Amino acid sequence: MIGGGQGAFIGAIHRFASLGDGQIELVCGALSNSPDKAKSSGRELGLDDSRAYTSYTDMIQSEAALPPETRMDFVSIVTPNHVHFKPAMMALDHGFHVFIEKPMTFTLEEAIQLKEKVKSTGKVLTLAHTYTGYPMVKEARHMIAKGRLGKIRKIYVNYHQGWLSRASEQDGNKQAAWRTDPKRSGKSGAMGDIGVHAFNLAEYISGMKVTHLCAELDIVVNGRALDDDGMVMLKFSEDASGMLTATQVAAGEENALSIKIYGEDGGLEWHQMEPNTLHYRPLEGPAQVLRAGMPYLSDVAQLNTRTPAGHPEGYLEAFANLYRNFTLAVKHREGLSTGVREELIDYTDTEDGIRGMAFIENVVKSSNSFEKWLPFTI
Amino acid sequence: MIGGGQGAFIGAIHRFASLGDGQIELVCGALSNSPDKAKSSGRELGLDDSRAYTSYTDMIQSEAALPPETRMDFVSIVTPNHVHFKPAMMALDHGFHVFIEKPMTFTLEEAIQLKEKVKSTGKVLTLAHTYTGYPMVKEARHMIAKGRLGKIRKIYVNYHQGWLSRASEQDGNKQAAWRTDPKRSGKSGAMGDIGVHAFNLAEYISGMKVTHLCAELDIVVNGRALDDDGMVMLKFSEDASGMLTATQVAAGEENALSIKIYGEDGGLEWHQMEPNTLHYRPLEGPAQVLRAGMPYLSDVAQLNTRTPAGHPEGYLEAFANLYRNFTLAVKHREGLSTGVREELIDYTDTEDGIRGMAFIENVVKSSNSFEKWLPFTI
Amino acid sequence: MIGGGQGAFIGAIHRFASLGDGQIELVCGALSNSPDKAKSSGRELGLDDSRAYTSYTDMIQSEAALPPETRMDFVSIVTPNHVHFKPAMMALDHGFHVFIEKPMTFTLEEAIQLKEKVKSTGKVLTLAHTYTGYPMVKEARHMIAKGRLGKIRKIYVNYHQGWLSRASEQDGNKQAAWRTDPKRSGKSGAMGDIGVHAFNLAEYISGMKVTHLCAELDIVVNGRALDDDGMVMLKFSEDASGMLTATQVAAGEENALSIKIYGEDGGLEWHQMEPNTLHYRPLEGPAQVLRAGMPYLSDVAQLNTRTPAGHPEGYLEAFANLYRNFTLAVKHREGLSTGVREELIDYTDTEDGIRGMAFIENVVKSSNSFEKWLPFTI
Amino acid sequence: MIGGGQGAFIGAIHRFASLGDGQIELVCGALSNSPDKAKSSGRELGLDDSRAYTSYTDMIQSEAALPPETRMDFVSIVTPNHVHFKPAMMALDHGFHVFIEKPMTFTLEEAIQLKEKVKSTGKVLTLAHTYTGYPMVKEARHMIAKGRLGKIRKIYVNYHQGWLSRASEQDGNKQAAWRTDPKRSGKSGAMGDIGVHAFNLAEYISGMKVTHLCAELDIVVNGRALDDDGMVMLKFSEDASGMLTATQVAAGEENALSIKIYGEDGGLEWHQMEPNTLHYRPLEGPAQVLRAGMPYLSDVAQLNTRTPAGHPEGYLEAFANLYRNFTLAVKHREGLSTGVREELIDYTDTEDGIRGMAFIENVVKSSNSFEKWLPFTI
């Protein structure tokens, strides 16, 4: 693990998500730049001092020099956005698979380079689009792929948070500070932080690609340098259209990501805060409430569920599913048996990562334009 | 009542809404152009044959000639959109107050003329923006007017129906037929039919006015002449912004009108299909569930409620509130005592009606434009 | 109408419910014992002074003396519980149909006499078990009658209110005062007021009869003479069992009546506060959300619905359905055509009314007994 | 870990719950009686062959002989009910803390012996009453302890499942087979399996004890030897009363455990299937929706939450909280620093375990009695 020392939030999430299934063990870390903190963080997590490295370069080189049965199998990169690209490139070059916190890189150019490197090394790289890990999201994708909704017509995706309603970055809130800082977050604030999740979810579930967009970004709280609010009208391939809104100033909202998709023959609705339920409304007949863990769900939903129906799973299990699928993908890539059919294995790949980076670029461009519709370009 | 003979849908709604409170009696009607149907419809409703007229001109003239204690007090116009203007003008000219089914008129120009006529005659004219009749909608408006949310920042309003997902206008569905016909519905389909309700609701609750918009209308079902789907980005006075979507091709949806409004200090959420609940989320502290009929609500919400909390009221009671407020307004205008403070009386007036007509015009114009933002003009 | 003068709550409800459909007109009343109030209440409702009677005896006799085309068709009795029996008997004797507010009478003995009178006069008598008027309640009954759940096994019905959590009867709350007074309410408080609705609903939907019960009544708020809380274990015919709870001291609850019924092949769940939704969970396959107004519902549900799906109906429409069915039943009894198949007409009859009175008697008896199970006797 | 080899359900749950926080490592196991399966299960989980034991006696003795820094710290017992007592006694005798799957033992007598052993050895023993691990359950308990509801009056707790609606134990369903078998499950089926969770939850949240009960157990599906359904009326200390229902034949239900508690000043409602929400209804003022992860919650709720509000946690996190609290309790017992105030540490102890066993005994006794109320005895 690179990053994620004491006090780091997302590192603990990655560890919970990766360790629970008993398939992954934490064997080494470059948990902090500070040698003291690197050691003490390592000890707290049961690492051997010799493998609690103080830099990712040291870690990657040292581990690569260990015998195969001892050395780490892959790297998890949980550093801030601007420290994703270099360690990922280096890890790939040294023969390690890579799991990166989202977004893939700091810029679109880096993302494209990284994709090439993945291709040339033949390793697996994934990134944490956590919401795609929910079983009912996978069920929705499966239903649409099977044609259950007919031709898709409309997609509405909304991601509303309220935690940046006040200028808390000026009051010592560290999460708020880096997310509103262009040097650490990139070209966009709310749209880059959460809008890109909404975009990814829409493309993931629908199986369609955005072709044109018309965006408006806004800075609602005075004094910010990056958008904390935005809305985007979308055109998709195959004549569908839709709407994406993302805001971090919806006072009182927690983490309200939701999506509605309508086709000729019915509609689907999913809310991240009640993730085990998928509402399916056929054009005719009663609405149905599909529930995680039920036997009528698809194999892919079953694969991504740990408990019987009615025992709610949540965000950390969705995250654990990212690691589960990544592990399966790595094993498949390495020719190991997994007991799981390959078509069920499903993870965010570099192509998706690049589209996410491109989404941010295109939204910013459109927001600055007087023209209504711009094509989505990479 | 003009229109609303046997088989007419909205006429029965108006009657239920107006008669239940025991303050209004149906005394005459021009229920149908067909003399036979006019008589038989009248008899079914207990009208005297002599007051079951066969044209609105006949009705207005004849009633005006009756002695004041006998003649009707006001006219309800429940005919199709293109037959709103003339009977309304004539009724006003003969000294009758007017209640019109929405939209106010067929064109913006007519609406402006009608407003002038209302002003010059001093009569009360209202139109059926039913959703403003719900007590929790009035509570939301009241809370915002009192500053409970602070300065308003965001408004999201969505109106999703699925009943036009198929080309049912070609299969004998009369409601579908006239709503998809430009000659009877006007310049817009979905946006004129339901989008205008969403627009009205957003302005009504927030107390703000739309100043700019960027719209995209769409014909999803092949063969239609009018939009069955659309989305509009909105800018409001006082720096707020928002999003409005309206569609009649959201397969499986019933009548899903909902609104979320966020200010500096909190947010509100209301769903028409669960109308007795208003979700209030302050920026700090737990979310609250405000419920119709509860003693902590404002006087205006209480005035528009008939039953104790937990005895759900619905669409017809909201509609009855339009008649209740109209009746109160008429009494106030005529100097009669009502026992109700004037500031609690609240109805859709000609100004609102004109803005609704202008919304349709502006949306169509923007949808045809390549420019992103157009000013909202009347 | 007998009772229901100015200031009376339930009278206004009955009027709203009966007038809205335009099939019933208020033609006379004995609205109050006080001559002044009787007149002024009558005027407010548009009654002719000559038919604003000051006693029900006067009203029944005078109306019976009028020519058939003028005189009232039926009587609505909305007086307190102890003034139901006599006017009902007298009205029947004079040839009028009768609609009584629930409960049918003050004692079981009166109820039995009234049933005999109804039988001998051949008139229609119904009582206001309002919750059976909801279309989704009728749908539930229909589904079970059609065998959709298989053999019924379990019924859970709960009716929880909080409005008697404090001794508000001592602070001038008139509703609280008469409902906690044995002289006006009868042998039971909460169980007689709301428990009997729950009992009626369980028998109505399931089509089964309670055969044994084990009850515990409780006085939670000190100083009361009647139960404000209770719970009852139930055995039904055909081996089903269940649980009924009724309380008026569930602080914070509004009018939370709900029922769950499970059979061999699936379950149903309905909540009065969200009355347009019926949850149906088949043993296999996804849960379904049945919604009022949808075309897939039964004819009986359609008959009891006024608006399209998504336009919520509520308590007053359920009440209006009682009057709708009563009117239809009267017309059928009198040989008039209604356009409605007789098997769709459905109202609470004297048999149901007697069972309701017997329920109260049996619950009180069981609560005073040390034995666990007592048979349900009439 | 004792039990929990390949194919075992609850073992995987315990591992996910214990490993995710990175504070616990799986170091040894007696995962299966079969030597082959013990080895292969151990390898799959990364155990050293030398510590993949084939019996718990071997494991406890061998581990006790290892040096302190190497040997295991505690034992998790995840075997069937009748194999809880002996390994727990032996582990305690050899100086290990113990975490047992619920129920504590097979009989009440064993439970009492085990309690004595825990007392005499000074070790920590807990059992998996998972539902007490949810943060909002702890918040509810905290609110009541702080007097937020005033004196408690009513408790309604229901636990409804549908998975035993058919005699699936006769079709090879292993879970169904052992739970319906008196030799493996004990004296009661549904009440012992899930009713006891409901009982524990009611006592846990309310802080009160059941003093009397009146129970009725039922075998709904023909051919079973144990109850698959039951209901219990309850009296609590301090004059409160309540109702508990537990059934496994509620066709279509998943794992619907819910509780409502009402006091003089307000009520609480919680549903296990939406565990991050706690509904709080004060007697006056609007209902509140308390949400996991929000800053207004108590310290004890915060301690048992891993993610920010709106990132749902579920059953596995509740389970992980059991291990978190157990670990903290062990550290406190051993004098190690934890950074957590002792009064925040909270786990199911032997006293609770004994009351759970006694609940089953008392319910069975009452169900067989003709008397209404029996005292709750241990």
Task: Name the descriptors.
homotetramer, 378 residues, alpha+beta, Dihydrodipicolinate Reductase, domain 2, 2 domains, three-stranded parallel sheet
Topology overview:
Four copies of one chain form a homotetramer.
Chain A: H1 9-19, H2 35-44, H3 56-65, E1 74-77, H4 85-93, E2 97-100, H5 108-121, E3 125-127, H6 135-145, E4 152-160, H7 174-179, H8 182-185, H9 190-206, E5 210-218, E6 229-236, E7 241-247, E8 256-263, E9 266-271, E10 277-282, E11 287-291, H10 299-303, H11 315-333, H12 350-367, E12 374-375
Parallel strand pairs in A: 1-2, 2-3, 4-7
Antiparallel strand pairs in A: 4-8, 5-6, 5-12, 6-7, 8-9, 9-10, 10-11
Count of helix runs of chain A? 12
- The chain-level structural class of chain A is alpha+beta
Largest sheet of chain A: 9 strands, mixed
Q: What separation lies between the terminal Cα atoms of chain A?
A: 31 Å
Looking at the structure, the CATH topology of the largest domain in chain A is Dihydrodipicolinate Reductase, domain 2
The two chains with the largest interface, and their residue counts, are: C-D, 42 and 42 residues
Shape call of chain A: globular
The H/E string of chain A reads HHHEHEHEHEHHHEEEEEEEHHHE
The CATH fourth-level homologous superfamily of the largest domain in chain A: Dihydrodipicolinate Reductase, domain 2
Question: Low-confidence stretches of chain A at least 5 residues in length (pLDDT < 50)?
Answer: none
Strand order of the largest sheet of chain A: 11-10-9-8-4-7-6-5-12
Specify the CATH architecture of the largest domain in chain A.
Answer: 2-Layer Sandwich
What is the beta-strand fraction of chain A? 15-25%
How confident is the prediction overall: mean pLDDT of chain A? Answer: 95
Our count of domains of chain A comes out at 2
Count of β-strands of chain A: 12
Highest-level CATH class of the largest domain in chain A: Alpha Beta
Quaternary form: homotetramer
Rg of chain A (C-alpha, Å): 21 Å
Helix content of chain A: 25-40%
